[in-house]
Amino acid sequence: MRGSDAGQGAARGFGTxxxxxxxxxxxxxxxxxxxxxxxxxxxxxxxxxxxxxxxxGFGADADAxxxxxxxxxxxxxxxxxxxxxxxxxxxxxxxxxPPSDWQFPVLTAMxxxxxxxxxxxxxxxxxxxxxxxxxxxxxxxxxGAYRPDREPSAALLGPNTTLPQVFRGWKSPKLFDxxxxxxxxxxxxxxxxxxxxxxxAVDKKLRLKLVAKRLDSDCSAAVQGEGLTERVSDxxxxxxxxxxxxxxxxxxxxxxxxxxxKDGQAATELVDALETLYRxxxxxxxxxxxxxFPAGGYSEAGGYALGHYVGLVWLGRVDGAExxxxxxxxxxxxxxxxxxxxxxxxxxxxxxxxx
Length: 355
Hints:
This protein is α+β, with helices and mostly antiparallel strands. It is 40% helix and 16% strand. The strands form two sheets. A seven-stranded mixed beta sheet has the order 1-8-9-6-5-3-2, with helices on both faces. Strand 2 (199-201) and strand 3 (207-216) form a beta hairpin. Helix 3 packs parallel to helix 4, helix 3 (38-44) packs antiparallel against helix 5 (58-82) and helix 9 packs antiparallel against helix 10. It is elongated and about 100 Å long.
């Protein structure tokens, strides 16, 4: 009787001509569930009507069918959004394989796999690197071979050659700028002009006495060593004045050499070059029976750019020993540079006394 009432209720719902809001028959409810719309149909369709009437029977079946269809719809929706579950009912979902880093549009368009593209790129890189190195080698070869200058050495001059063991160089002070160009100081040096004083004062007691002097127009006669000789010639040297001095106590020997070069730049470059050239070449020592630089003895030297002139100071002990505590080489150097007064006078001759 209860089932008949349910049927009658269903018939009444359909017979009154109600649309979807009024309800579906059981067949329609099942079709909706199979099509993935059971959940929506269950809410707005026959299940709602059956609930409103409070009947069981066929309405309960419809509810069950709607629930089954809703689950199916949920499952299908989940497959569309997240992909199919792994075989065997597992809950882990497979992730998509990330694209390879070795994919280039041009090579991909040619139908090459990522592995093949990787091989091609590596091989091309190696070939490019080899080609670049070959190009550098060809360019370097075209520049010509480099042959470093031979290190100056006293051994090339003979066993009895005397050279300084220490050298210091100084650039030309601004005071000598008027003498930067020899064209403005064309008058040649004279022996009397440079070595007019027979003694040079070191301090109140010590004096440097002139024991030999010489002025050469051929500068190669005043220097020794191939490298230095070439440098002096390239600097346009036209005169070399040398003076040999011995201290009044007979303890020290010194020589001052003044070179007349073409300009201030040549003088500066020669002093710079002497930083290494002095090891294999220096001014030739003047001979004298009153004193000389002992072969193999210790001595110190300095080079001074003075406009277009270069002054070379050379000092040592007569016995060849290294300087001790009482040996004041600074004062001896200043005393020996007294021969530079000739150069100072030439500055005054150009600029006038007031300068």
